Amino acid sequence: MEHCPACHDSNSQKSERLSHHNEKTIRELANRMNRIEGQIRGIKGMIENHAYCDDVLNQIASAQAALNGVSKLLLEKHMKSCVLEQLQEGNEQVIDELVKTMHRMMK
């Protein structure tokens, strides 16, 4: 099992929890993050090469949209696995945790 970034926090008791995402989901998330990493490097290169500001801003918007897509996918998987499992175990505090996470995502 892999650590779910939404479930894993090395600074709290939550670090004991693991996600139950399948390998396909892990690969999809990792592939998306690899593409975003490439976009970020490209944006850095544009800035270093004095690219036109509007072009850089459009690339930044594209990278932000890609990150939002990863967040949405991970949130969906988190709710369908991690959250559902905890609710089935009687842990209703997971709802408060989820609400806080969603508030952070919507900032």
Topology:
Layout: H1 23-48, H2 53-88, H3 93-105
Helix pairs in contact: 1-2, 2-3
Region (Disordered): 1-22
InterPro entries: Metal_Tscrpt_repr, Metal_Tscrpt_repr_sf
Protein name: CsoR family transcriptional regulator
What's this, in brief?
This protein is an all-alpha fold and 107 residues long. 70% of the residues lie in helices and 0% in strands. The longest helix has 36 residues, at 53-88.
Structure overview:
This protein has about 110 residues and is mainly alpha-helical. The protein has a single domain (about 15-105), classed as Up-down Bundle (Methane Monooxygenase Hydroxylase, Chain G, domain 1), CATH 1.20.58. It has 3 helices and no strands. Helix 1 (about 25-50) runs antiparallel to helix 2 (about 55-90) and helix 2 (about 55-90) packs antiparallel against helix 3 (about 95-105). The radius of gyration is 17 Å and the shape is elongated. About 10% of the residues are buried. InterPro entries: Metal_Tscrpt_repr (IPR003735), Metal_Tscrpt_repr_sf (IPR038390). GO terms for molecular function: DNA binding; metal ion binding. This is CsoR family transcriptional regulator. It comes from Desulfitobacterium hafniense (strain Y51).
